[in-house]
Amino acid sequence: MSEKSTPVHYSVRDGVAVIMLDAPPVNSLSQGMRAAILDAVTLAGSDAAIRGVVLVGAERMFCGGAEIKEFSDGKVAPPDLNDVCAVLEGLNKPVVAAIHGHALGGGMELTLGCHYRVAAPSAKVGFPEVLLGVLPGAGGTQRLPRLIGVARALDMILTGTVISVSRAKADGLIDAVLDGDLLERAIEFTVNAAENPQNMRVAGALPVAADKTTAAQLHEARIEWQKKAPGAKAPQAIVDCIEYAASGASLADGLAFERRKFLDLMNGDQSEALRHLFFAEKAAVKIPGLDADLKARPIAKIGVIGAGTMGGGIAMNFLNAGLPVVLLDIKQEWLDAGIAKISQNYAASVQKGRVTQAEMDARMGLLASSLSYDDVANCDLVIEAVFETMDIKKEVCVRLGKICKPGAIIATNTSTLNVDILANASGRPADFLGMHFFSPAQIMRLLEVVRGAETAPDVLHTVMGLARRIGKIAVVSGVCYGFIGNRMLEGYLREMDFLLMEGASPAQIDSVLESFGMAMGPCRMTDMAGVDVNARVLDEREREGHLPGHPAYRAVVRKLGELGRNGQKNGVGYYRYDGRTPIHDDEVERICIDLATRHNITRRTAIPDEEIRARLLYPLINEGYRILEEGIAYRSGDIDVVWTAGYGFPRLAGGPMHLAQKIGERRIRDRIAEFASVTGDPHGFWDPAPLLTRNAAEQA
Ligand code: NAD
To answer: Which helix H or strand E contains 119, and what residues bound it?
Structure first.
């Protein structure tokens, strides 16, 4: 059992059996690992010379949890983790889990089967299963409330948060925090425990401490999670399981109940979608064709050009990560306003207790401001976030190309302009790329990294690594209008405006999309982003001859823009606003009726919700197929990451491309054809993407 190829090493020290999990990178609990632990524990149990057992992880951590890939099999191959925990728990000698690094999910459940849990001071523990749409399915929901009570168990399992060992010790989850060599100290602890068998705590044999507040706690948790995650099944199933444990049921019954709930979730669509996103986010950072031993360029100092909304937010990302930033603008007053805004943002975070005053001071201390390009000459990365006008941006890129030190990376935050034109303007297209942040840039996790025609592989590699350093989810996009996200948004918003002219109300459209799971319906979203911003982009595209010829294309947003109904910022847009609350506005209905008359659009008294959902979502999905076929996105999972991380698309649906698979490509193609037939579609709005058509044909 001690050969290197097995996932578990067994050795004996001071009469204590040491069972070491060794399956890099995270010692996950694959079928092979579970079987090997079971064998080792059985061996230790049957050897009378063994006084106790220590379970410990090799290398980086104790255990990262289940082997998620096994979930797709629909069932768990024996032995399951419950079998392992039952044998551990039933051993008549102390079993001690010695935790370093992380113990997560199934890894934590394994420790709950042990009689003691000891940990290195830096270790972290948690139950992140809910993030994958499942629940701890090997006793977590039954043993944890027995150890730490219902309220704390609910909090830990429902939030999926990873907590420090000091917190876990205070909760009574960890028995001892051990300094020094963890294994040595854990062996000493085990010897001591063997000599004091009266102290041994078997989690599964404890009663759940329930009192008259317990029922209320469970009820509140249910309501809270219905609000926080509407429609999500896992949080409700978690409450069911903990409620069952608190009802006084035996451990055996509780485990059987939990297992049924776990299997339901594991085999359900929601968990499938969340697991898809888990793997898609991991895959998105991998760039096909890049040399494995490519070196990243060192990044120690950042320049940001333009101290406006985006420039300030972008700067904060780097300050938060401890990187010095030089913020540059052309006028002192704009620079001052930008710095003041950053300072206000931090002060608000201090007030909310998210950042300490000392942290704020340290971050502001890393920020320098300047009116002179000379001050960004020695930066390793310079990101421009000036006005969205080609001539201004070109001029800025020309200057950066001249002044930046050799090897510096130059990036543009443009949302709509051609990155290759700007790259060429800089005179160093190999050092150039797009870094498309989303607003508010210090908060939104998505970063579209736009790979220009000549962007050097090491530049791309460096920026992907840097994105991780500042906590962003980065997805690579090729160069095209709107990149991945905004390009797909076009058809979605196009249909929003057409439906309004056909007789739907903003409230109906938003409510349909919000019931589907979008964080915000499209009318509210446009009001928040700014009707004027949308209208301006459309005007600019029209000037360039890039708008579809349909006279009513985006007519509502353009009319609202013309009337100065700019959205939330001035209290009127698709809605009227009372503070931030949107209220129906008859005036908008009148505008839509006028536009419909002018453009010969037939109004209907009722538009079915299903039609609204399909009219908005199918063009978006259709464009996703084009983006995939053109190679703008490397994989369909990348598109799903963009939409879930940047556009509020429901994670429970897995992203638009995952959803398309669930709906069925034939069904989507057929519905698109139906929509085309209603109008005859002279502008080709409903032309199906060739890839969608081919996939649908293959399904026939
Ligand atoms: P903004 O108007 O708030 O800020 C632009 C800043 O650039 C201003 O402070 C201006 O003084 C400064 N500036 C203009 N010309 C300059 C020059 N030659 N040199 C130095 N500074 C100059 O605009 P914003 O909303 O921050 O947008 C900036 C960029 O970010 C645009 O390219 C925009 O498309 C892009 N973007 C915006 C959003 C958004 O939601 N606002 C989202 C993604 C990307």
So the answer is: strand 116-119
Give the strand pairing for 52-57 and 95-99: parallel
pLDDT in tens, 32-86: 999 999 999 999 999 999 999 999 999 899 999 998 888 877 777 899 999 999 9
Q: How many C-beta neighbours within 10 Å does residue 549 have?
A: 8
Residue position matching structure tokens 């990155």: 419
Structure tokens at 41: 């524990």
Q: Which residues have a Cβ under 8 Å from the Cβ of 485 and sit 6 or more positions away?
A: 446, 448, 642, 643, 646, 647
Query: Residue 384 C-alpha to ligand 1 middle, in angstroms?
Result: 8
pLDDT in tens, 513-543: 999 999 999 999 999 999 998 999 899 889 8
Strand partners, 384: 305, 412
In this prediction, residue 358 carries a pLDDT of 97
Which of 327, 387, 446, 538 maximizes ligand 1 atoms within 8 Å of its Cβ, making it the mutation to test the pocket?
387
Ligand 1: nearest atom to the Cα of 337:
9
At 349, list the tokens: 């975070």
Q: Tell me phi and psi for residue 647, to 5 degrees.
A: -125, 10
Task: Return d(Cα 373, Cα 20) in angstroms, integer.
Answer: 57
The reported pTM is 0.92
- C-alpha 278/C-alpha 654 separation (Å) is 10
CA–centroid distance, 312 to ligand 1, in Å, is 10
- Rg of the chain, C-alpha, whole Å: 29
Report the C-alpha gap between 121 and 498 in whole angstroms: 60
Which parts of 461-601 are beta strand (E)? 473-477, 576-578, 581-583
Q: CA 684 from chain center: how many Å?
A: 34
Number of H helices, E strands in the chain: 28, 19
DSSP 330-377: SSHHHHHHHHHHHHHHHHHHHHTTSS-HHHHHHHHHTEEEES-GGGGT
- Give the three-state DSSP class for 301: coil
Say how many Å lie between the CA of residue 87 and the centre of ligand 1.
62
Neighbour count for residue 180 (Cβ, 10 Å): 9
- AA letter at 646: G
